[in-house]
Amino acid sequence: MPARGMPVEGPCAFGAAAGLGLLADAVFGDPRRGHPVAAFGRAAGAAERLLWRDDRASGALFTAVCVGGAVGAAALARRTARGSRGASVALTAAATWAVVGGTSLGREARLIGARLAAGDVPGARARLPHLCGRDPEALDEGQLARAVVESVAENTSDAVVGALVWGALAGVPGLVGFRAVNTLDAMVGHRSPRHLRFGWASARLDDAVGAPGARLTAALAVLAGGAPRRALGVVRRDAHRHPSPNAGPVEASFAGALGLRLGGTLAYGGRVEHRPVLGEGQRPVEVADIDRAVRLSRRVTWLALAACVAGRAAWGSIQGRRGGAGC
């Protein structure tokens, strides 16, 4: 039981706080200066320079130091705020705003879509690195549109839904910890010669913590896309064929929900990959589909918040904890 004067953040308090954070993201987008995630990235970069060795053990130590430090700082902040319900809600709202990136995701996707619609393929290529790490120079209009839709799908899970899931499970430390793990994976989790062994722990941890959000994203995309039977069929048939255990269900669900064919040949950092097709038999991605993907992402975001609040309430009811089930 919590100590007297230390209120538990119930499901409605969490929902209100996380909802305020999502609204702040919708209105303001990412902070232009002093973004906490950017600050974490700089600190992690300094830690990498200090700890890098070409082996998995050093990478595991790096991951533990970075994630443990971020979660520890968040836990200390939560402990400080627990004496006031208002402060607790404000902290959760601020943390949600800091770690989600749905508005920036949609903005970047639509900027590329606008350039493609205007016939400015070179401009779209120049903008693509703001959204994903693919090599844009060899991509034509359709391939650029496909890359954007796939990035919107994957980042709906990575940049929004996964954070909400861990926020519902573990509060502010869960929000911050998820974003820390996801950031490390982006920094060192790729298969470059430098990070093949050093980044192994970060990549595997990201797979583990990203799994719940990816499954929830896929389920909600199936429900919210307007063609649930088709979307579910694509997920069942194609999701497991994707090399990523988390991106597979998410991209397959968007492919089915939007009636598109995703996957195929792509290039990262000079390395060409031939990925299986998701949604075989459906039409190729067109420029107008970028806006459809962004709209689906937004629907999934708000449905995910509702699902997380409901899940938190159900768990509190099962546990029978005072303040856990009620609002």
Describe the overall structure:
A hairpin with a 2-residue loop joins strand 2 and strand 3. 69% of the residues lie in helices and 4% in strands. The model is unreliable at 1-7 (pLDDT under 50). It is globular, with a radius of gyration of 20 Å. It has helices at residues 11-28, 36-51, 56-81, 85-99, 102-117, 121-127, 141-188, 200-224, 228-238, 247-258, 288-319; strands spanning 260-261, 265-268, 271-274, 283-284. The chain has a two-stranded parallel sheet. A two-stranded antiparallel sheet has the order 2-3. With 327 residues, it is mainly alpha-helical. The chain is built from 11 helices and 4 strands. Helix 7 packs across helix 8.
**Alpha-carbon distance between the termini?**
17 Å
The string of secondary-structure elements, in order, is HHHHHHHHHHEEEEH
On the 0 to 100 scale, the average pLDDT is: 91
Radius of gyration: 20 Å
Task: Please summarize the sheet with the most strands.
Answer: 2 strands, parallel
Shape: globular
Instruction: Pick out the low-confidence regions.
Output: 1-7
Strand arrangement, major sheet: 1-4
How is the topology of this model organized?
Blueprint: H1 11-28, H2 36-51, H3 56-81, H4 85-99, H5 102-117, H6 121-127, H7 141-188, H8 200-224, H9 228-238, H10 247-258, E1 260-261, E2 265-268, E3 271-274, E4 283-284, H11 288-319
Parallel strand pairs: 1-4
Antiparallel strand pairs: 2-3
